[in-house]
Fold:
Amino acid sequence: MSVFAPFFSACAPAEVSNATPDGAGFVDGVRTAQLIANGELTSLEATEAAISRAEAVNDKINAIATPGFDAARERAATAPEGAFGGVPTFIKDLADWKGLQSLMGSRAFVGNIAAEDGPLSNVWRDQLGVVTLGKSTSPEMGLISSTEPLVTGPTRNPWNLDRIPGGSSGGAAALTAARVVPFAHASDGGGSIRIPAACCGLFGLKPSHLASPIGRDNQEGNPVNISVDLAVSNTVRDSAALFAATARQQGQDQFVSGPATRRLRIGYAPMPATDSPLDASVLDELNRTAELCRALGHDVIDYRIPLDGPEFLDRFLLYWSAGAAQFAQDASAFAGQPPSPEILEPWTLGLAQNFLSRATEMEATI
Structure:
């Protein structure tokens, strides 16, 4: 059995709770944007409906780190333009949205109001035209795959409130799976889009490193930032359209959304580089997906990831620890007190200490 089997057992939807709607009347982000553009729906109407859904379920799923309903109503009233003009969504707590609190999942940053948009928010606000209802929950700095930070408390899976939604984009996934919004911003450095998407039955694409326009912006001057940004969504076309719209804004017109005729050469590597055994049901689904790709006319090639598994995990942990160490310094500076259990969580402190004990290895790793 995989070492991750207990985790996936904890997050897998076992039964539908009343936090998840039956889907009647649901439309995705692409369709919502079309309705708004055609004058069949106003952004304010879409926003008010999403706020009502949020208020109906958030007591159960606890997925909103900081609400921004009044600011959302004000923005929606101006009918913002863009590929997703007027569509309501949430921004992950790790990204700055001007005027909203950025907790970054941490007690250290209570009261940290963003003075400006971060790179992701700037594009989503000014170029995509979304309406942000608030910030979705994340574990501290997004460092673990379960969204239960001390600052906001545990976020729950809307399919089964006894289960976790995964992480680190757990709040985004819970709000999207509960169909409060059609999609929500998510970021991924070690599974933080893919894990909650799997836990909550959503579509979650992690763009390749540096292929994500926003992710590329985030790399500048920060060699240990390995995260990229996109979304979790209820439909594939929402994620595709979000990526395509964002890429076009960055001058990357080769990214398009919608059906394509080009046949692909797809490497199929079902076995982890660490040789950890997969759960049989997971392997069955991977094989089914590979067969579907073949049936669609694509060339699917058996492939083995050319990595030394144990070495890769060790290097990855060092990178992860470097990010935690930097975060601990930033948290200490904002809170005005030394890094300690009073402001930081045990996992963050442990990773930071791990980096301090191995800092001399970092230059050879980058």
Q: What stands out?
A: Confidence is low (pLDDT under 50) at residues 1-18.
